Amino acid sequence: MRHLRSLEGISLGKTWLTIGVFDGMHRGHQEIIKVLTAGAHSTGASAVVLSFYPHPAAVLGKRTQLKYLSPPDEKAELLAVCGADVLITHPFDQQVASLAPEAFMANLQRHLEIEKLLVGYDFALGKDRQGDGDYLKQMGLKDGYAVQQFAPLQDDEGIISSTRVRETLADGNVVAANQLLGHPYALSGSVIHGDGRGRKINIPTANIEISSEKAIPANGVYACYVYVDDVKHPAVTNVGIRPTFTPDKAEANIEAHILDFDGDLYEKKLHLEFIDFLRPEKKFNGVDELLTQIHLDIEKARKILK
């Protein structure tokens, strides 16, 4: 799959297009991409996804300190698995936000030769969100492309959305987050040097450096899978400040103890999938009490990941 960072220099003939932020690529997003890819490929067209970065809600001041479920490169990987041909990560700023929907779509049509446009139930583009589904359908009739708008995908709790995924992660409920996503919530990053405490107590951990833009689950201990050189391993992961040793630390660490693994991980890039929440982070009275709890965590994780 091609990942492009703007429309500059792009000339694609015969495309099916969907536009949206698609943060997290949850099950609702996947329904749109499934129809997009199947329909496009059945007609010999390219399945194109146009997303925005930075997030429009952050640029427009609707959400402060917004963290991404899937930054652009991660989103590209998820879309590739779904069969999309091209992801265009379109820069978003106040100038783009102020464009009339006719101007924005006319520019897209010059580059993409759109045959069909697929949008979500709450989609709107252009100044004052004028370009909603009904408006785009009228534009499509005039400009020669069909528009399909999707109803929201729902479960027993309501509409599946990126906001709900963020809320479940903030609660540490990665099981619920994974159900909404249709895939495990994941973090990726390089292993960096820590303070070496884990190795001293014979519980070595990989300290994983995560982008500051990425949403992280609530502080606590989790059963996870860690991919090392594309090989999957069970792991116990601590997200937090390690209150037994560094109670005044402000930012959370991500530390994974990979079960039954012995190898040098420094500077390797690891992919970490969250499977279940084991317990909240807590302060222990000493190393012995901490070690007892860690071994209980490991046994519980083995049962979950078996």
Characterization of the model:
The mean pLDDT is 94. The chain has helices at 27-42, 56-59, 72-82, 94-97, 101-112, 133-143, 162-170, 174-181, 197-200, 287-305; strands at residues 2-4, 15-19, 46-53, 86-91, 114-119, 124-125, 131-132, 146-149, 154-155, 158-159, 185-192, 206-209, 220-228, 231-240, 253-258, 269-279. The longest helix has 19 residues, at 287-305. A hairpin with a 5-residue loop joins strand 6 and strand 7. It is α/β, with parallel strands linked by helices and 306 residues long. The protein has two domains: 2-159, HUPs (Rossmann fold, 3-Layer(aba) Sandwich); 185-305, Beta Barrel (Elongation Factor Tu (Ef-tu), domain 3).
What is shown here, in short?
With 306 residues, the protein is an alpha/beta fold. The protein has ten helices and 16 strands. The model has no long low-confidence stretch (mean pLDDT 94).
Report the CATH C-level class of the largest domain: Alpha Beta
Morphology call:
elongated
Total count of strands: 16
Q: What is the rounded distance between the termini?
A: 34 Å
Order of helices and strands: EEHEHHEHHEEEHEEEHHEHEEEEEH
Structural class: alpha/beta
Radius of gyration: 22 Å
Q: Assign the CATH architecture of the largest domain.
A: 3-Layer(aba) Sandwich
Low-pLDDT parts are none
CATH names the topology of the largest domain as: Rossmann fold
- What is the count of DSSP helices, taking H or I runs of 4+ residues? 10
Helix content estimate: 25-40%
Layout: helices, strands, pairs:
Elements: E1 2-4, E2 15-19, H1 27-42, E3 46-53, H2 56-59, H3 72-82, E4 86-91, H4 94-97, H5 101-112, E5 114-119, E6 124-125, E7 131-132, H6 133-143, E8 146-149, E9 154-155, E10 158-159, H7 162-170, H8 174-181, E11 185-192, H9 197-200, E12 206-209, E13 220-228, E14 231-240, E15 253-258, E16 269-279, H10 287-305
Parallel strand pairs: 1-4, 2-3, 2-5, 3-4, 5-8
Antiparallel strand pairs: 6-7, 9-10, 11-12, 11-16, 12-15, 13-14, 13-16, 14-15
Helix pairs in contact: 7-8
